[in-house]
Amino acid sequence: MADQTFAVTVVASTGGNRYRFDGGSLDAETLELTEGKTYRFTQEHSSNSNHPLRFSTTPDGTHGGGSEYTTGVTTAGTPGSSGAYTEITIAYKAPLLFYYCSNHPGMGGAAKTVGIEASDGGLAFGHYLTLRSPTTLGDFKFQNCWVGENADFSGTSFGFLPFSFSGVTITKSGDNMPATIAFPNNELSRPFATIAVQDEYLANIRTVLIDPDNKDGYTLLNQYIGQIVSAKWDSQSLTLEMASVFDAVGADVPRKRLTRQLVGHLPLTSSVRVA
After folding, report:
1. What is the DSSP letter of 261?
2. Please, what's the b/e burial string for 179-199 (b: 16 or more CB within 10 A of its CB; e: otherwise)?
3. CA 69/CA 73 separation, integer angstroms
4. pLDDT tens digits, residue range 63-111?
5. What is the pTM of this model?
């Protein structure tokens, strides 16, 4: 049984069709979905015909270079007819989601996924990310706190980008352990990740405690600085791995990577004979 039901309709708006919910007047409004709860999107209204509602971790789903998100999702019936719906149970630590029409671009919007604590009006965590290239001028600045908006941090504007960060860990000797940043996997993020690894981008991630009702209300909890050293991806997400640029014991800043240019060709077998 669903915890909440949204009655979906499709309306003609500026630039094309848009989804609306429960007879409201907002086109493609941003939804807030809580972990552990089940939401049913009924598509029985005739305006839904040929407009199946689906979810993705990429804005505009498959039309934006992403793939369909299917974790906890069930569908039934044919949109525009009796009994048609898309239902989703929000998984623990589910990523930021986007709802979209699988047949037509530009119809959907964002579906923020929040923990139970944040949905009850408490505080939430967010991140401000700065990516710096040593070979080009300028920084890339992103935040994952305020969907579809710019937000200021220390007087600098950060644009919204859906990403997650993990790895704020410090050893007893004072070293930062490797950390990761995960982005939606699409045609824009893959080339960017390749360049970030090749050019050895530096990442500065600030973890903040935010007040969901006050964009200017945040408390800095932690700051991590690391160098992008590798990237990997699957059908839904792309992950950048970072290594700390500081070594508390060896003091090598930054760490070196063995490359063919530095050490030549490496042997492909353990059977090595020295003449």
Report:
1. H
2. bbbbbbbbeebeebbeebbee
3. 8
4. 999 999 999 999 999 999 999 999 999 987 788 899 999 999 999 999 9
5. 0.48
